């Protein structure tokens, strides 16, 4: 844009930022020029040496302009006319000069070093016409170059002013021409350049970032006396994702129906189910903070995507704060037990009349839970005592049942229930989660001891069995008040310090072997919350319970000659009167022993319950390899309970038992002794077998869980027990599932540590019942050759042979040598003795809920019958509202 | 005097002495442009800031998806580094989101706000909205508070926050680490800002001007009182954000804006509403062809629909 304007009547000013539009000659406008070429970004050039500006003729003129000179295209700022050129110009690079002043067509003076090539320069030219006192003066970039005074344009007005260049390489911009003075600093009036942008900060009506998905998994419990009619049950299924709810408009007093746009249909209905991860209870006391402040006034109408109908007008401003930090991390399950109190009030408190009328009497529990039968089996050498209830008020799996039955307390977890009509059969166990599934590291070394000697004749600084039980029991909540130990204490050698095992494993390892010396067998059991470890013969001073004068059935007395090489101390077979009485389920231990090899198998009721193996070998390079394995098996009884009414009206419980392997626990220690260094690999495998009922009365194996913990560590001499506990190298969990497919086919899927390992299909039901090992009853004893001392096998074995000298069982896992000798002595003491087992039922009437016998025979007792003392083998307790039967198995040696 | 500074994410709208790079990537910013400023004690000079003002800052902070060491710092003007300091030092699994006492940020920090990433509301691999509010005063009255995304963190109180203009002038500091973080969508004000506020570019439907339209959107005024007024495409904007969305502020930016001459030259921001043209801030221009001017104004009771009737622009100075 270029324009000529008058500052007053006589003073005019022409400005041109650099456009050729208004020139009188034909010129070219250049745009988008860098500031180094034109401050305005535009420029022009024209090549005609003729008047190009339409200006008034004037006697004095000031011309100011920017020129970009490329050095070859000369430029001229002249007034041209009949008097010749007047003004300033540049010369090309071939000239010795680059800048010159002219007047009347003649050079006034030339300069060099003024015009700089390829540069934008500002030129100011001032001319006054006159014959003798005219002026031509020039400034370049603010520096005065020259002032000439003399004849300029011969006194004529300047009427043909132009800016000219020889070509496009030299161009003009920022041109100001005036008949008044132009200052050196003067510029085009207010020429500015701007590239405008507009931004705004807005508050979008409803802000839902596109990247955020709404998925609400919240169950809201609003506890308030005011009921909400809507918004109470909200179900947001994942399929119904709310991506954008663009327009939610709440305008006071105005309903913008036309602007609604729903992307989502949200159904809010009453009666829909919650699908919630989170259950939130909002109490009035909770303080909340929210970024939304909502005030609902009575007069305001809400138009929203949720229609809230408020019957009671909400005037409260609710602030809600949701933090994710409110997490509960709990490893504790608190169980509220069912309590069956079933004991006799002390006599001194109540008269016998009162006792029978006492509303708190035994009958109460029967009534309350509708107990029709209780059946408990107390078995030796096992932690898996079994109990069964028939009740009418149902309980759930994993419920805790606390039973105080006469003088004993029991605490059980419900494992299995069977409902038939009104009656529920409940089967339970100890809390096996603690006993069988809680793994911990066993400590067998006393940190305070100075040194440890594995081969010492005494304990060698290791913990004794009692100490271990008490220490480790704490980890399961058995404090010392809740552990009752009555044993000849010893120091076990079959548990390495830092072994990882469960408490059941631990007890099994500590005491399982004692069944080999049955008269001092250690029984472990839990009553209530108390753990008992009681050795036969150490029941206590007042433990003898005389049943001679109590009502009992005719005892079945079985006497047998016993040889210690293969002894058969008891028989647990209940079915003495069965048809199949030729076979006898074997109970006892088969063992064989030598300095390098020791094997023992322990059976109970024909079932293998314990297996111990120790092999020692010496390699050629002097390495000693010791391999010790201790495996224990436990079985579940599958029982069909038949309850039938007999003629006399009494209820009769009949059971039929088959056995299934339920758990296998194998503890292996492999030692490699080379010089002073012992490398130990320790493996504990625990496999649990889970069964499902198929058909009426058969079980099939549906899942196996095998957990294997392997540790490997070195033990240097002297012992460095800094911390090899951390060296658990591997834990593997293998799960095998068997799924019936029909037609006798079963699918088998194996998972290792949660990863599928493969699957196959097989025919035939997995996991059959165990068939017990039976022996000929008549024979009674076995071929003794299975137990002879291999190293010193005598040529002939007879009753007269001094076999006793052969029996040196070194496999007892005991450190004290004196104790080992004692054990061997006790073992030999049984040799050629008579084993007497007695089966007898204590039968007690229950009169109005009060049984005649108020004691349960347990392993804390010895039993006296007809003047003979017996140890308890098992007690099967049946308790009905009418009858209380204890089926005892007793044993003694004479 | 109420002020409002709005920056979608342009480096050129920061103080010229900042060490900042501009990131043109919609990953980093919803406006498509973001910056990373790594100059300590640099940011935005707010000349209007005065004693007694509260300070509100809202910005978006992009965090890369990888765990790493990131921090952002935002302080009020004239506080000498009292402000919001968020550091994610995931190598230790620890986070500091707190206020800052005087000094270098890694020094006297205090975890006033939150300790864990989860509690803080920050999310990796996305653009986080951060709102910061500071009130000057003595230990009884001063406080700082911060909202990240939808989590409002506990207020930090009990500490004197003096207004001390001599220390760091009126520069609101705003910087983040070299890591692949980015700041965008910045709004600073002495009046309350909602965390939901967004900076958007206003699309233009028409430009009324007697200036010369140059290339690339550049306009040249070569005479005083030449002016330029632009109309906003409110319909397009309304379709995206809701036609009734409140407009809380507007920023008129000249990028670049400069004079081509040696004399005094200026530009004055204009707004036109209801046929009345109002002049606002006047900027004296330099001849640096890369200089930027910005005139921000707080609007109230204005919606996007209202923008339809308004025009914004510039007038060349007399």
Task: Tell me the total number of β-strands of chain A.
Answer: 47
Q: What is the number of beta strands of chain B? A: 25
Q: Please indicate the percent range of residues of chain A in DSSP E strands (runs of 2 or more).
A: 35-45%
Q: Pairing-aware structural class of the strands and helices of chain B?
A: mainly beta
The rough form of chain B would be described as globular
Q: Low-confidence parts of chain B lasting 5 or more residues at pLDDT below 50?
A: 101-109
Mean pLDDT of chain A: 72
- Radius of gyration of chain A (CA) equals 54 Å
Terminal Cα span of chain B: 26 Å
Number of distinct helices of chain B: 4
Oligomer: heterodimer
Task: Pick out the low-confidence regions of chain A.
Answer: 207-333, 347-359, 565-582, 717-726, 777-807
The two chains with the largest interface, and their residue counts, are: A-B, 51 and 82 residues
The biggest sheet of chain A, with number of strands, parallel, antiparallel or mixed sense and barrel status, is:
13 strands, mixed
The biggest beta sheet of chain B reads:
7 strands, antiparallel
Helix content of chain B: under 10%
What proportion of the residues of chain B form beta strands (DSSP E)? Answer: over 45%
The helicity of chain A comes to under 10%
**Which shape of chain A, going by the Cα principal axes?**
rod-shaped
